[in-house]
Amino acid sequence: MSFSPTHVVSGGASAWNDPDGTGPPAVTLEPGTEVAANDPIGGWVYVTLANGWSGWVDAARITPLGGAPAEAGAGAGGLVPASVGQRFGARLIDVLFFLVAMFVVGIVFGGAFAEDTDPDPNEVRYEIENPLTAIAIGTTGWFLYEAIPVGVAGRTPGKRIIGLRVVGTDGGLPGMGRATRRWALPASGNLVPFFGWAWTLVVLLSPTWSPNGRGWHDRVSDTLVVRAT
């Protein structure tokens, strides 16, 4: 893919691998360095250099080729990161919707995965005796509910209701690769008996203490949650 610069670094700029500015910068860009930049996200802009390296710089440190300095924050066409409260609200709605969906699936298809354990021949009580079957069903359902909608449309039902969407660091749709990585980190808790739920909870709560509100699952998948426009 050919390099098509859109901006130039004015006065030099530090660049990071994540849009938070914590820790030492990954590289320092010299004044006059040409970059290909995406829309600003919360005062940061994702840039690509001619050598293929990509990272985040302060949006105010770059200038459009032949134009004025880029605006920090939402700016023209910019993206605003979702607040922790908005993300929590969307997650709560998704959990409720998912539980209802799995309840309906259990009613409709329960006989295919469970056995009738009621001793009374006139009564039916389905139970899944193999816990691995229950884990597999729940994990598959979670993937269908979250990973596919995020990869294809950038939104789960909960995010759509709250007005949020997931984007890649390039500002576009995550695609199934990034959406699957994003889903897999918290879902990996299902592989740990008894205590896996704690890992899942920690991952989902990680935006509350992470710089710029990005959770561990956001970082591992190179995604961000922003307000839908």
How does this structure look, described?
This protein has six helices and eleven strands. It is α+β, with helices and mostly antiparallel strands. The protein has a five-stranded antiparallel sheet, with no helix packed on it. It has a two-stranded antiparallel ribbon with strand order 2-3. The protein has a two-stranded antiparallel sheet with strand order 8-9. Strand 4 and strand 5 (44-48) form a beta hairpin. Helix 2 (131-153) runs antiparallel to helix 4.
Question: Which outline best applies?
Answer: elongated
Strand order, main sheet: write it out. 6-5-4-1-7
Please report which band the strand proportion falls in: under 5%, 5-15%, 15-25%, 25-35%, 35-45% or over 45%. Answer: 15-25%
- Taking all Cα atoms into account, the compactness measure Rg is 22 Å
For the largest beta-sheet, the strand count, sense and barrel status come to: 5 strands, antiparallel
Give the termini separation: 29 Å
Helix content: 25-40%
Report the uncertain regions: 70-77
Please give the oligomerization state of what you see: single chain
- The pLDDT mean sits at 83
Order of helices and strands: EEEEEEEHEEHHEHHHE
Count of helix runs: 6
What is the number of beta strands?
11
Structural class: alpha+beta
What are the defining features of this structure?
229 residues, two-stranded antiparallel sheet, 5-stranded antiparallel β-sheet, alpha+beta
